[in-house]
Write a structure and sequence with these properties.
This protein has 262 residues and is an alpha/beta fold. The chain has a domain of 162 residues: Rossmann fold. 42% of the residues lie in helices and 15% in strands. The longest helix has 18 residues.
Length: 262
Amino acid sequence: ILIITGPNMGGKSTYLRQTALICILAQMGSYVPAEEAEIGLVDRVFTRIGAMDFLSLGQSTFMVEMLETAGILNSATEKSLILLDEVGRGTSTFDGLSLAWAVVEYLHGNNHIKAKTLFATHYHELTELAMTMDRIKNYHVSVKEWKDDIIFLRKIVPGPSDQSYGIHVAKLAGIPRTVLERAREILFNLEKKELDSEGIPKISYRQNDDTDDSQLFLFGGDEKYRLLKKLKDEIDRCDVSAMTPVEALNMIDRLKKEIKEG
């Protein structure tokens, strides 16, 4: 079982689809896009890829997803090929993660299945399964960060991905800058998983609201984030080409003092 993580648009779904096509091509005696390949026979190829609903049957997107997943779990054998793409994304985060985790455990532990499985997901918690289950391996779609952008390398490499780069992809899609900045604030607060002294979730905070800073920045990590953001904003506003060398040195000296005092 391969747990495949990585950014949106990185190629996870394409990798799953090409695996299915290559298996079918090989089994029918056709050429495959490889210099050399050793591919075992499969009795069936099961897929849970994409998202759609069936209004005429009264089935929501999530219901269709669960029906297809149920069909796979009840029908697959040890000689099947199973391709699962983001199982659990159609419901709440905790419900979806719980279902995805349980599905992987079932595929790993059920002696009647033990099928070769590719499981693409944005639930990075699933990568921890490889620590306790010997048939589970982590792979990810590699990317390269360049300044505030990402470059898709279109390669599958061993190991888990450290993030999904959703905000980066949103930037590529043309989402307004104010929305992206707000999303970064919310992401930071979510990762902190903290409440303020009044029990208000920090996810709701904004940089320019009336919230008391002493409540917003309770811990050293928060204070550091505020200082770094302030320095970044100030540097972004500077027109380096219009500054003299002395002015640039004075600015660097002032920023260094602010960091020491901060």
